[in-house]
Design brief:
The protein has 379 residues and is of the alpha/beta class. It is 31% helix and 24% strand. It contains nine helices and 17 strands. A six-stranded mixed beta sheet has the order 4-3-2-1-13-14, with no helix packed on it. A six-stranded mixed beta sheet has the order 5-6-7-10-12-11, with no helix packed on it. The termini are far apart.
């Protein structure tokens, strides 16, 4: 039974400018490590080929070193790798692929599918029909030729393409690099391996997007996996199983804080996350000084444990409780300042609200530090 790994959208060389430099480097490095995991799986499972449905590289301008490192990461599997140019690494006259050839970096078992022509692996029982992009965007369906391709009846017909299946994905991405819905059935394909959509998605019984194997967006769309595809023979159903290969788990949270129990729940959720988390957290609602200090302490610990943690505080209002004010001994003029800062957190723009919250926290901290130790319940 022929068996394949289907993956796509490696985007080797991707940069992460929104992150701190050490996190950005680690996230970029994770893409090479993920390819190594795929190669190891392919070798352990003895698959007949690894299908990479486009966007192997993030850009045409990646360095020579990045090109060599990518092919080095693939060394654990010595079977056929079938690499399709996508929109990020299209098969231009001068491209990352032509540069890789000049560098003599492409191993003999790696097939870069630069032309729309059938490639037969008769001994393994399949033929690949590729639809490489030769420019970043096209309004023509490059998979049209699959239907007229003549292949032996005894071999599986495997399509490989990079683009948007019309009417299936979001309307705003249905125009660049279109692929007709129902192409697998119309072209008598046993399987159509797709790339471009970065999440895992089944289009029909024989058509799948594998998604990117290393998550890089805050979307719960099944990214971080590779597909194991088994087909008994021509016309037999494709048995598809997803396997996790990603190194980091990206999560975007929004947590409402009103009661101490909300903070307890949030901190328990943080504790349950793995060290490999990339977390973007927005806190909203209202908390007192004690609650804010608990959150800050827990998030400081989490920031040291996670791969990356970004916390957005602007929607969280600091409202010192009566006990807070008593412990801080804020009366008279200071009490008026505290009240004004509290008011400005909700009455002004987001930037001014953030300044007011920070000022209130600084003032509360100064007052707390000046209070006699025995009078300060926060110690």
């Amino acid at each position: 039974m022929p068996r394949f790994l289907h993956t796509a959208d490696w985007q080797i060389g991707r940069q992460y400018g929104r992150f701190d430099s050490d996190d950005a480097v680690a996230l970029a490095e994770a893409r090479f490590t993920c390819v190594e995991r795929i190669a190891t799986l392919a070798s352990e499972w003895q698959v007949d080929a690894v299908l990479v449905a486009g966007d192997v590289f993030d850009a045409q301008t990646v360095s020579d070193r990045v090109i060599r490192r990518l092919f080095n990461a693939m060394q654990a599997y010595n079977g056929p790798w079938l690499l399709l140019p996508g929109n990020h690494d299209a098969a231009l006259v001068e491209s990352v692929w032509s540069r890789a050839e000049r560098l003599q970096a492409v191993p003999d078992n790696v097939h870069v599918l630069l032309r729309p022509e059938a490639l037969s692996f008769a001994a393994a029982g399949f033929v690949v029909l590729p639809a490489p992009l030769t420019q970043r965007q096209t309004n023509r369906d490059l998979t049209e030729w699959f239907a007229s391709a003549d292949t032996p009846d005894t071999l599986l017909r495997i399509g490989l393409a990079h683009g948007s299946v019309q009417g299936i994905l979001a309307a705003e991405i249905d125009s660049p690099n279109p692929i007709a819905a129902g192409r697998a059935e119309q072209a008598r394909l046993d399987y159509l391996a797709l790339g471009d959509w970065h999440g895992l998605k089944q289009v029909d019984a024989r058509t799948w997007y594998s998604g990117t194997p290393e998550q890089e967006r805050f979307k719960n769309n099944g990214a971080g996996q590779v597909l194991n595809v088994e087909i008994a023979g021509p016309g037999a159903p494709a048995e598809v199983t997803a396997h996790n290969v990603g190194g980091y788990q990206w999560q975007q949270w929004r947590r409402e804080i009103q009661l101490a129990s909300d903070i307890d729940r949030c901190l328990a959720e943080l504790d349950a996350l793995p060290d490999t988390s990339v977390l973007d957290l927005t806190l909203c609602g209202t908390t007192d000084l004690v609650g804010l200090q608990r959150l800050q302490q827990a998030l400081s610990v989490a920031a040291g444990r996670f791969r990356s943690l970004a916390c957005h505080w602007r929607e969280l209002t600091l409202a010192p409780s009566a006990d807070d004010l008593i412990s801080l001994q804020a009366d008279g003029y200071l009490a008026e300042v505290v009240e004004q800062l509290q008011q400005r957190q909700s009455d002004n723009s987001e930037d001014e609200a953030e300044v007011a919250r920070e000022a209130l926290m600084i003032l509360a901290t100064l007052l707390r530090d000046q209070a006699p130790a025995g009078d300060n319940p926060c110690n």
